[in-house]
Amino acid sequence: NKKAFIFDLDGVIVDTAKFHFVAWQRLAASLDINFTEEENEQLKGVSRVNSLKKILEWGNKEVSPEVFQAKMDQKNEEYLELIKTLDVNDILPGVHDFLLELKAKEQPIALGSASKNARPILEKLGIKDLFDVIVDGTNVTKAKPDPEVFLNACDQLGYNPQASVVFEDSVAGVQAANTAGMISIGLGDQSILNEADEVFAHFTDMPQDYINILLSKNK
Ligand code: G6P
Ligand code: MG
Q1: What is the position in ligand 1's atom list of the atom closest to the CA of 121?
Q2: pLDDT in tens, 138-196
Q3: Which residues contact 212 (CB under 8 A, 6 or more apart)?
Q4: Closest ligand 1 atom to the C-alpha of 118?
Q5: Cα 78 from Cα 22, distance rounded (Å)
Q6: Distance of CA 39 to the CA centre of its chain
């Protein structure tokens, strides 16, 4: 009895969402755009390029392709500076144990992230080797809520979407999992992630035998 377990990175495995927020806020400020926490919520799971497009759209600003590229680079430089000190202690509560339990049960594990920084981040956290497959922003062309990233992951693991479980903290990611026909588990606020099949604030809030529950669960 097996399923493909697919994890988003930012906001599920590690709380980088707060660093993305800081970096985008500085970027927006440099363009004289006010950037709120509600807007940031809508950027979770959204690729770097699409995030900048949205910020410009919300701020009613247009920039040349050169400035656009420069702003993208600037955002990533700031972000990389902010996450410089990430290590094993930054793995969100319960995640490491959950991954190890999956390993012990010989369940296939994949990463499905929009981030182009996913591999170095997993290395910093010391958990890269736990993943059988990594699909990230360097592999996909269509951003969440398009299900490409998750379909690619379950495909590489050799599983059907119906036999896949996705862990997501973003609305776009939950929608992507649902569109793919996968079981969607939201991590965060129930009122924001209400489209998910189930929502937990943290992995530590899941029932003790949750992996077995998921293994016998149908979409
Ligand atoms: C994740 C985050 C987004 C981020 C995107 C791209 O989906 O939730 O906030 O914009 O990855 O990340 P990157 O590291 O490539 O800028
Ligand atoms: Mg996320």
Answers
A1: 14
A2: 999 898 999 999 999 999 999 999 999 999 999 999 999 999 999 999 999 999 999 99
A3: none
A4: 14
A5: 9
A6: 17
Which atom of ligand 1 lies at the shortest distance from residue 51's CA?
10
Reply yes or no on whether 8 is catalytic: yes
Distance 138 CA to ligand 2 centre (A): 16
C-alpha span between 3 and 184 (Å, rounded)? 13
Cα 114 to ligand 1 centre (Å): 6
Q: In the 8-state DSSP scheme, what is residue 169?
A: S
Instruction: For residues 24 and 22, give the distance between their C-alpha atoms in angstroms, rounded to a whole number.
Output: 6
Does the complex come out with an ipTM higher than 0.85?
yes
**In which order are the strands placed within the sheet that holds 109-112?**
133-135, 109-112, 4-7, 164-168, 183-187, 198-200
Mutate to test the pocket of ligand 1, among 8, 20, 117 (most ligand atoms within 8 A of CB): 20
Name which of 81, 98, 66, 118 is nearest 165 in CA terms.
Answer: 98
Number of the ligand closest to the Cα of 143: 1
